[in-house]
Amino acid sequence: MVRVSNGEKRILEAAENLFSRHGFDAVSIQKIATQAGVSKATIFHHFSSKQELYITILKQACLDIGTILQSLEKEPCTSVKPLRDFASAHLKNMFDQQDVSRLILREMTDGDIKQGQALAVEVFGEHFSRLIVLIQSGQQEGVLRKNMDAADAAAAIVGLNVFMFQSWSVLQHLPATSFTDPAHTGERWLRLLLLGITDKEETAA
Amino acid sequence: MVRVSNGEKRILEAAENLFSRHGFDAVSIQKIATQAGVSKATIFHHFSSKQELYITILKQACLDIGTILQSLEKEPCTSVKPLRDFASAHLKNMFDQQDVSRLILREMTDGDIKQGQALAVEVFGEHFSRLIVLIQSGQQEGVLRKNMDAADAAAAIVGLNVFMFQSWSVLQHLPATSFTDPAHTGERWLRLLLLGITDKEETAA
DNA sequence: TAAAATCCTGACCGATTGGTTGGTCAGGAG
DNA sequence: CTCCTGACCAACCAATCGGTCAGGATTTTA
């Protein structure tokens, strides 16, 4: 059993919260210390540098997401239901663990720290390959269109979820739209992706 | 004609570049001054504060995007082509003006500065309402499915583009995928969105 | 050409940054 | 009772932060 003192845990919690909301540079050690109810020196007692603290949190975040994604081992894809389940679970997970999700997404898009982007790629690759397998089995079963790249479909599903998560606060303030509940909106978007935007009869490109 | 001194222009260029890449807090006035080839005090001669400089850039960015979007005034949507054009133009514009795009997207998702998020919402709303109108006309013409929310479709189109733009560097490093060229990948994703993922009878591309 | 306005700078300010130092304190082992 | 260790902190450090100011250089205007 790894010993983790009370203070260290509080530091990690505060740092994860602040880093995820404001990013690496906008958060000072002093702010983390204050929010953790600890002196600044204590942080350097537990972590050798600000960057080490950040990477520690990033690794933990990747670990968390990894274990959660494991719970989505699914049966072969004889219908679109596993796809729906995956998408809604993925979306729910993002909103449930906002701090972790924001942290990883931030690292993905910003990527100042070299180690960080590599980690993010690793985590994202995990999502992707799992989802791609799911889609390919669906293609073999004849449920999903065969003349498309499974990777494209996977990217589209994950991409829409990510976009909704990132832009939710903005989407709400948009005029003339009906984006009220993330989960419900996500279902509608996925349905769009499944059925297509075009009207069924006229699908001439 | 508004007079803009040589120095001021260089400051704006440097600031836009740095802010878009690293965010507000991670960029110091000194770094902007150095990259602009100007002394730090000169920046405060032209701008009263760091925040004012940032907002100035943000406003300019919104203006740029606004004028570009105006060039997409399109004829009524009797086919799916205007939709393709909009999407590809939108994507191309993001990659052509990476700094501006990143700046606005960053402000959208981060949103530390109150004024910033409002501006981002305004710009994004511009995209959206234009696109929604386009889609609704397509629905009336019978080209697009009627039993869907035009706002959902618009969000999906823009969302996939945004996701691709933001995550392009990561997508490339993903294993077992064929994401080589943004424009080409974007076309494939849009096709997916138009036709749907699920298999249907008459869906030859 | 002199005055006025603008552009630009080096020197400087108090505050804050990430990080170090020396040391206190509680508790477990011998 | 001593010794050791890990947790913790106030005080401190050099560097950098955003920002100010007085004044030199250059251009505009009168």
Structure write-up:
Two copies of one chain form a homodimer. With 205 residues, chain A is an all-alpha fold. Chain A is built from nine helices and no strands. Chain A has helices at 6-22, 29-36, 40-46, 50-70, 81-96, 98-109, 114-140, 150-172, 182-195. In chain A, α1 crosses α4 (50-70), α6 crosses α7 (114-140) and α8 (150-172) packs antiparallel against α9. Chain A starts with 5 loop residues before the first helix and ends in a 10-residue tail after the last helix. The relative contact order of chain A is 0.10. Mean pLDDT of chain A is 83; it is low at 201-205. At the A-B interface, α7, α8 and α9 of A face α7, α8 and α9 of B. The structure holds a DNA duplex (30 and 30 nucleotides).
